[in-house]
């Protein structure tokens, strides 16, 4: 069931991303080509799916949540472009293809990332309900700034050359660098649907837990991070605990949240 859900929503999100991104033919072509190259290159689309599903289970309409979902995917793509830069994680491959800076050069990669981030907030600001879009802009900007994703990246760079990182530092990095945007995705969907505070908070916390679980699985696949502290079996146990805590938060939604429960299981069982 989750495979069909993923495929259906990925196609929907990709179609809308294709629409929102500037066409390659528009001047200056090279920057628009780099933006499209970095966004339309596969990807699980977990963050935008969280926006759509959180909105749905709170009674919202998919068509209203789609621009927010796409905006968050643009933010995520920007973060990956910058994360891959030689001055950051220095990664030459992203999703099986040359990283943006490898294909287009560092300067253009930085500008492509900046452009995607700017376009993301432009998309959110187009919403008709300005009080709602204002709150969503506040939540996303908080999640990705120096108190969120960027703060996590700063600490990640700080400990880059350390062979052993203590658990509190690792948790800080993972909560901020990975989980904060995932949590904001779930929260944004609930806000789009005008959900009551109790449901908004439950979905935000759900997102935080699966975000952490996602990072633990990344560490298992890369054989670093949590694996260095807990060992392989201990890290898997930690990921499972996080997924279960996430699913516990969905009780107030009943069977409506079954897709989110399956998504949590997918996160901890993924092989790539």
Q: Tell me, rounded to a whole number, the average pLDDT.
A: 94
Annotation, overall tally of beta strands = 2
Please give the order of strands in the largest beta sheet: 1-2
What string, H for helix and E for strand, traces the elements in order? Answer: HHHHEEHHHHHHHH
Structural Rg: 18 Å
Number of domains: 1
CATH-level-2 architecture: Orthogonal Bundle
Question: What share of the residues lie within helices?
Answer: over 70%
CATH fold category name: Farnesyl Diphosphate Synthase
Just give the CATH class: Mainly Alpha
Describe the structure.
There is one protein chain. The protein has 272 residues and is an all-alpha fold. It has a single domain (2-269), classed as Farnesyl Diphosphate Synthase (Orthogonal Bundle), CATH 1.10.600. The protein has twelve helices and two strands, in the order ααααββαααααααα. A two-stranded antiparallel ribbon has the order 1-2. A hairpin with a 2-residue loop joins β1 (93-94) and β2 (97-98). α2 (29-39) crosses α6 (106-125) and α7 runs antiparallel to α9. The protein is globular and about 50 Å long. The model has no long low-confidence stretch (mean pLDDT 94).
Features of the shown structure:
12 helices, 2 strands, single chain, 272 residues, Farnesyl Diphosphate Synthase, mainly alpha
In short:
This protein has helices at residues 2-20, 29-39, 46-57, 62-83, 100-104, 106-125, 130-144, 149-158, 167-192, 197-222, 226-248, 258-269, and strands at residues 93-94, 97-98. It is mainly α and 272 residues long.
